[in-house]
């Protein structure tokens, strides 16, 4: 799998929603010993967890969630377009077509039968987080 400094190396990356991303990052790092990998403005951050990672994203917490979306799971794949084609062929509820982003990832989203959101991502370039507005912590 291609390497990209703008995305964690882990294959499966949970994305957890919090009302206050900075507060959540501080708490998770202080309490669980996670380390900041990349901060993306005030709405998103990547944290190191051993040889894995999580993404903290802005959103509703489970209590009082208006949208009901409190988490997602990001999965790194070798070929996001082929993965997308398979999902479509199998009748998945695709949330959007594969799109290439400035941070070097090509991604698309799916909602599973349980209402869980999945984001499949392929590294297409190795981009420093600072090149698209992120701030690097410990890579």
Gist?
This protein has helices at 21-32, 80-89; strands spanning 12-18, 35-40, 44-49, 52-58, 71-76, 93-100, 105-111, 117-123, 134-136.
Instruction: Describe the main β-sheet briefly.
Output: 9 strands, mixed
Molecular shape: globular
Poorly predicted runs? none
Q: Span from first to last CA?
A: 17 Å
Q: State the share of residues found in helices, binned by percent.
A: 10-25%
CATH architecture: Roll
Count of individual helical segments: 2
CATH top-level class: Alpha Beta
Q: Mean of the pLDDT scores?
A: 89
CATH superfamily: 2,3-Dihydroxybiphenyl 1,2-Dioxygenase, domain 1
* Secondary-structure class: alpha+beta
Tell me what portion of residues adopts beta-strand conformation. 35-45%
Total DSSP E strands: 9
Neighbour order of strands in the largest sheet? 6-7-8-5-1-4-3-2-9
